[in-house]
Write a structure and sequence with these properties.
alpha+beta; elongated
Amino acid sequence: MNEGDKLDLNWWLKELVPVVQKICEAGIDRKIDRTFWSNAYVRSSEYVGVLIGGWINAFIPYLTRGRNWSVEKGRNPDYSYPGVDTESYLEGISKVPFIHMDLVNKIATPLEICGGFLGGKYDKSTDTVSPHYFWCIAHPNQEEKKPKQRAIRYEDSDEDF
């Protein structure tokens, strides 16, 4: 996997692979390590805010400021990781801006196409968890620190459409 570290991910894979192996042991061999599973998600409150520790961090290689330092530092023998403040996690949603061109009414409306991971669903009958993904087209978030965008008429604009 990642021969020659061409993707510069070996720092992450050395932490991820053992976690995935422990999950597979539980699913395939039915070997349940209670310490491992109790360290999946560890929430704590510190003076800096809410921190998320546990091996769930092994699945998150990057934070808002680059590599996940918690994973880079390495796990403890019980598979726990130091906590990461919740503000450092990237959103699981990607957004791409575009402009919808209404050629009949000559109106350009700024919109975004959004997509990503929304959550999971537990199926009691099969004892499995399935991811839920979504996509949608939406108006840009007006609460973000961007100038407000509005629909503009072609004749109100100096821009070429």
